[in-house]
Design brief:
Length: about 450
């Protein structure tokens, strides 16, 4: 005979399900068996031992004289009662122990499957609720499996299996089975009634949790992280603010000789982290956000959330950054669309300019987008950069860049075709003088 209690013993040590819940599930399963066999369960007591995993079922009925049993579910004749215990008398309650085997093999097998199913459902619900309340929390776990598209991580604290998709890893992350990994809970999904806890190492909250670990002032609430933006594996910008004037928030986050930030940089595969002091002065915040570039001046268009930043030619490449990463992150950090201009480039009326979007009939959209990614929104922005500089900062071929330059120069040549060229005019005058002399 299959012992249904064994099923309880298999699951009673699960950490994520409390014992009262386990006992309640076991009682529910047995009460279903009782109702099917006896028609009612209100006069049955079920006693479960959570320590040993044992279970006892007691049936309670009123003792009546022989021949006066109206409902055998609630009444028992005195002649049957004394067979259970000789001291019973009419009018007393008779307690009869019911064995699990009395329900029959088929009923026990069905109940066992129901018990296992109910406990697994509880386990899934518990995992879902537990991690749904921990979105953004730091997880430390061991790599149990390396699959094609994801890593299976076992949470060291709970033993639950979590998923770290490779799309949520930093460039340069490579984990093998048995490696210990840190990540944050990004989201919890239900797929085919199975909870899937998705981890991330690219989320901004991951960097925030690492900072909390390394900087006690953040954990104590003396320093607040106002905003974090990241290009995972490349660069991150963190705006911090201190509520204590005696504490330098940037210095506290960096640490003595970079002691605090170095560990985080290593964890993030040498991701450059710019820590800036938050301020409500938006122009000043934009200057700080464009670190390491030095800004000459900033003009704000508050209605359209646009900022025109002017700086020396040597600082432009720093402000824009490799593949435009620095200026993109700065724009996200301050919530402004930032345009970079060379200082003094538009001081005279002769220096008219044309937006790159005006050339979409002649230049492909993806090429214009590539130029915009490095901060070149106008024709003169592009022409102010050398061929070598354009090659270095974009993914465009040399031939393509030369064709773009021809197209853009043609616009300015056409715009001034009716104006005499001083160089050509002087050359013509010299030629005329020579002819006269001859």
């Amino acid at each position: 005979m299959i012992n249904l209690i064994d099923s309880f013993s298999e699951f009673k040590n699960m950490k994520s399900i409390d014992r009262p819940t386990m006992v309640r599930v076991l009682e529910d399963v047995f009460r279903t068996l009782i109702r099917k066999k006896y028609g009612a369960d209100d006069n049955f007591d079920i006693i479960v031992s959570t320590i040993e995993g044992d279970l006892e079922i007691w049936r309670k009925r009123e003792i009546v004289p022989d021949g006066e049993v109206e409902d055998d579910r609630y009444h028992i004749a005195i002649s049957d009662a004394v067979k259970i215990e000789e001291d019973y008398e009419v009018g007393e309650e008779c307690y009869e122990k019911v064995g699990v085997a009395d329900f029959g093999r088929r009923a026990i097998m069905a109940a066992r499957q129901t018990l296992i199913s109910r406990i697994l459902e509880l386990e899934k619900d518990k995992v879902y609720q537990m991690y749904a309340d921990r979105i953004g929390d730091l997880i430390f776990g061991e790599v149990a499996q390396t699959l094609k598209r994801e890593f299976v991580i076992v949470d060291e604290a709970t033993g639950a299996e979590l998923m770290l998709p490779k799309s949520e890893t930093i460039r340069g992350d490579y984990f093998r089975k048995g490696d210990m990994v840190r990540a944050v809970v990004d989201r919890v999904e239900n797929k085919n009634n199975n909870p899937m806890v998705i981890l991330s190492r690219t989320a901004s909250s991951f960097l925030e949790r690492l900072l909390e670990q390394e900087v006690p002032e953040i954990e104590d609430g003396l320093i607040t992280v106002r905003k974090i933006v990241r290009a995972p594996g490349d660069r991150a910008k963190v705006a911090v603010e201190s509520y204590d004037e005696r504490i330098d928030p940037v210095g506290a986050c960096v640490g003595m000789k970079g002691s605090r930030i170095h560990g985080i940089v290593r964890e993030l595969r040498n991701e450059n982290i710019d820590i800036i002091n938050y301020t409500s002065n938006e122009a000043l915040l934009i200057q700080r956000a464009l670190t390491p570039a030095r800004i000459s001046s900033v003009e704000l268009d508050l209605d359209n959330r646009k900022a025109s930043v002017f700086l020396e030619a040597a600082e432009i490449s720093k402000a824009i950054g490799k593949k435009g990463v620095n200026i993109k992150l700065a724009s996200r950090l301050v919530d402004y669309n930032i345009d970079v201009f060379r200082e003094g480039a538009f001081d005279t009326d002769a220096d008219f300019d044309v937006e790159l979007d005006e050339f979409r009939d002649e230049i492909e959209d993806w090429v214009i987008d590539e130029l915009k990614n490095i901060g070149c929104d106008t024709a003169r922005n592009v022409l102010n950069l050398s061929l070598d500089e354009l090659l270095r900062r974009t993914d465009l071929e040399e031939e393509t860049i030369k064709e773009i330059i021809v197209v853009l120069k043609a616009e300015f040549d056409d715009g001034g075709k009716d104006l005499p060229d001083p160089v050509e005019e002087e050359a013509e005058e010299e030629s005329s003088e020579e002819d006269s002399a001859e």
